[in-house]
Structure formats: C-alpha cells, structure tokens
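Chapter review. Work through the record for 5'-nucleotidase/2',3'-cyclic phosphodiesterase-like hydrolase before attempting the end-of-chapter questions.
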Amino acid sequence: MNRRELLFLLSALAGLSPKALAQVLENPSKLYDLPPYGEATLLYFSDLHGQAFPHHFMEPPNLIAPKPLMGRPGYLTGEAILRYYGVPRGSLLAHLLSYLDFVELARAFGPLGGFSALTALIRTQKAQVEAEGGKALVLDGGDTWTNSGLSLLTQGEAIVEWQNLVGVDHMVSHWEWTLGRARVEELLRRFGGELLSYNVVDELFGDPLFPAYRLHRVGPYALAVVGASYPYVKVSHPEEFTEGLSFALDVRRLQEAVDRARAEGADAVVLLSHNGLQLDAALAERVQGIDLILSGHTHDLTPLPWRVGKTWIVAGSTAGKALMRVDLKLKRGGVANLRVRVLPVLANHLPKAEDVEAFLEEKTAPHRDHLFAPLAVTETLLYKRDTLYSTWDQLVGEAVRATYPEVEVVFSPAVRWGTTLLPGQAITYDHLYAYLGFTYPELYLFYLRGEQIRNVLEDIASNVFTPDPFYQQGGDVSRAVGLRYVLDPDAPAGRRIREVEVGGRPLDPNRRYLVAAYGGRLQRVGEAKPGYEPRPIHEVVAAYLKSVGRVRVLPEANVRVLGRNYRVPEVTG
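Structure tokens for 5'-nucleotidase/2',3'-cyclic phosphodiesterase-like hydrolase:
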C-alpha cells in the first residue's frame, strides 16, 4: 500500500467540516457506500462498554508515553494525532480522533454510537458485501457486556441479546468477567456467536476453556480468526470473579495456536485481541504468522493500519462511536493487501434498526424513571479519559469529600471507559453508570500511612510508564483528589514520584491519612475506618448531585509532569 493509496483511504472523512458534512448527509451513501475490495470483510468494533444509547466521547487531552514509546500510535493526542494521519482540524475524522474543539464539533455533528444506529450500519455493510459475493464477519473486540446502566440492571443479559440481534460472529473478553465466572458461562450459553481465546485456561491443569481459533472459508482461501483475551484480568479485578481460571500472556501458546491454524489450511491469520495496542505491537514482533491484529482494550483508533514487522494492526475505537471496516485481499499464504475505513456512527443521521429500537424500549421500560431522570446539570465539560486527571474524577472526589468531610484523599480508578457530558447537559443515572458501572462499586474509607500512599503512587507509575509493554498491566494513572505531586515519568522505578502534598502540606511518611477509594483493591492494604459501612459509589455521587443541582468543575491538574507538555483543556460553557 503506497502513500497515494493511504491518503485516498482518508479522503472520505478527513475533509468533512460541519458544513460539508451537512451536504454529504443529504446523501449518506457518500460516507458509507464503498466499492467492493478483496474477498473478506471484517466489521469490527471494540470496547463498547455496554453503551446502548447515543452519547458523546472525548478523546484524551494527554497520553503520556514512556520515552522509548513516544510519537507512535497509542500515544498521540490533539494536534499530534491529526498531523500523524494528515487530518484537518475541525473535520469529522478530527472529531473522532482528537479532543480539540470538542464541544463545538460535538454540537455540530451530534451524538455518536448507540445500539440502534450501530446495528443498522453493520447490517447495511454486511448486506453490501454479501450482495457483491464477498464474505463478512462481525467481530467484537471485548469489553462489551459491562459498565453501563442497561448492563448492570440486567447483569449483562440485554447486551448479549443485542449481540445476537446484530449477529456477532466472534468475541474476546475482559471486563465481561467482572460479572463473575458463573454468570459469564451462563451468558455464553445464550450467546449466538463464539468466544475465542487462546489464553483462558484452567488454572490447575492448563486446559483451554474456549477454542483458540476458528477457520472460515472465503472463496478459494481460508481465513483463521484467533482470539486473545485480556491477560491481566486477575491483576485488575478481585480474584473471586475468576476463581480457577488463568488468563496469562503466553507467547509460546499463542504461537502454537497460529501454527495449528496454518497447519489446518489457513492462508491468512487474524488475531482478534484485547491486549491493548502497545502489547499487540510487541507481540507482532515476537509471534510469526499473524497477518493482521484487530486491537482492543486501550480504546485507540487507527484510521490507517499500523505496520509492525510483517503484521498489520488496526485498533477499533471505543464506545460504539465508529465501526471499522477492514477489507482483505487474500492470497495463498497471507494477505496481499487491505483497505481500512472508519465508519462513524452518526446517531442523528444513520437509519435506525427498528427491531433494536423496540428491544431497547422493552428492556429499559422497567428502569426508565431510574435511568433517565435528571440528577443535576453540569455547567462545564465532564470527561474521563486522560493519563492523569479528568473533570469527572474531580467531581467524584468533591462528592465524596462533601459527604465525608473527614476524608483527606480520594483515589479514583483510571479506567478508560466513561462518556462525555457537554456544558448545559443534564446528568442522569445512566450517565453515572457509564462512569461508575462497576459490579464491585463499594466506596471504602480506610487509613493509610504517608509512606504507603507514596508507595501506591510509585507502583502505579511503574505500571503505566514502563517502556516494556509486557509489563503494562493497567489503564491510566489512578486519580487522587486532595493530593498533589510531581511526576518524572523518565526516572527509574521507585523514584518517579516527588514533592507529595496532602491538603497543601508535605506528605508525612509516618502519619495516618483517612483515604477513600472504590473500584479496586487498595482498601486491602489499609486499616478500615471503624463503624463505616461501604456504600456504592454511584449512590454517593447521585445523592451529592441531587443536593447541589448544578455542578461546575474547573479543570486544575494536581500533577506537575517533568519533561512533558502536560495541560488540561480550558473550561467551556
């Protein structure tokens, strides 16, 4: 694929300003009707996190990279990502890729995603491919069943039913397992597709629970889809959810799965992965015989495929805001070429899937008053994604400290999911679940010594800023409201955190501090506050929102970063 072809792949989206988009949307076929290409089409989405309804999702203002990984896909934001892909600022593709001009563009283009529009788009694309004699597979990159109101209130059942309506062929997994092993296995029996995973095995005997791959005939060729689930489930979540299982990263086992698929006649091998973009790039250098990796987990979007060694990598975005269409021209023994298109899920402009509309109406009817009643109005932008800080986490910290004034530091988990609320938008319980949709939502109050707090910060920094993707085992940096510090991401492990302050005073290593935390296991290393009974974090925040009516979060980063241009977006609204 030469530079001219790559630029052509971007041209359909990159130049679409709001005015141009309005003209195009009079004839949406200009965006979504694609000429046939190749023999196989992969319709791919990832990291949906149960978001059933149209919403906004802002890309991170900052993605701080370890120095050896700077400047590569997965660590590009703002102007840098637009320059890398040659995308004009203010265009539709820029809105999907970058936080720049977010509020203005969100209002111009409207909300994205939602089950109904995404389903209609998948069905239309699949029908186009099959009408032209091609084969289309619908592939789900994982993190689909959980972290939304509809998911929590139905224990994932409604999301699986939607997958069956849309016709998902294969999926992989991560947050799904926070529903608990028994529930996951029950839902998989109802799932009409197939979960593939080379690395979900019995912890004691090492026996696989699921097929590692599946072969598909594509005309004269055979295409293998290999599945890779998130390898650090037991590190990221309470162990009781996955008792008896192992998810360990195993390069040898993955190589064996690829080799077996080749031996059974696969001409091309696609890895459907929930490893994250950086780990997938590292695997592409170590595992032979993978033609294409469809990468999930880190919520990245790659408008052009990333070539690592002999392997193409395509990342599938998040929250249902885009559908990736990957067309493969096959040959004996591999992929001759490919075409990648980002298909934006423009909720206000795509046709709706009427059966999905009826399905959502039925599923939400018992919960409508709970999910969609306004709790408060935000006067400023509320967002989640960033390496170190977000206005949403700031709001949660303020809610916890208003409810429990004795708390000095509030730790908030740095998960990548969570939609975005525009200034003037009402905050509903459905929005709260999009940010706080844990199956283990308890807010804990406990004591940590100052030295423990410093060690926690160092451990998190060591995880996030290690230059070796094989040791990156989490999301962004956990937020800490009430605490300030200096971060040196390039310092050796154990020396990245400096000048820690709590309440404006230097951290005392020997003093006990009352800390609040949720969505993790930090409370296990502390001393529980006597007489306190843990409450779900979403209940704490909902009560706070009802009490204040309106919220205005003024962005102010609590971390100073050495050696990087770190900044938070300006207040809008």
